[in-house]
């Protein structure tokens, strides 16, 4: 008589909550994620394109760094008071790292916004693009600029969380498979994929 052997469940096979699977891994919600992704991508693409095609050339070109320098100087002016808009540690970064390299940051911002926007629109490396978009939003917020940054930061965070399905209606559906990443969202494979076997 053979005694059933208890198999220890792997931590990697922990069951994902149903709500989380529905929101972040169910391909039935792919159309909603696609609309969200394209909206955020459009906002980034237009913001970057306006900088690159700026007729005054204050973002890219001979005068690169002019606009960024003005922005950083304005941010440094917000460091006073008991509750400053720009915290001291970030002001140090702006003054000693960003401002002396304003021209470099100008190119990074302009082309970074275009690349993030284009990647989100076509659904290519959605999670990575959304992450760097969120980093830019956070940088602007830390520099004391509100505008659309809070909303875009929240949406970028959701896109990072939903990367498995956010690019399902996009290039991620095929491109990620080339890198060995699961091409089909887990929710499409049924609940058994997330349930570890305990006895055999």
Automatic annotation (TrEMBL):
The keyword Transmembrane helix applies. InterPro entries: DoxX. It comes from the Bacteria. One of its GO terms (cellular component) is membrane. It is found in: Membrane. It is a multi-pass membrane protein. The chain crosses the membrane at residues 108-132, 138-161. Keywords: Membrane, Plasmid, Transmembrane, Transmembrane helix. This is DoxX family protein. The lineage of its organism: Bacteria, Thermotogati, Deinococcota, Deinococci, Deinococcales.
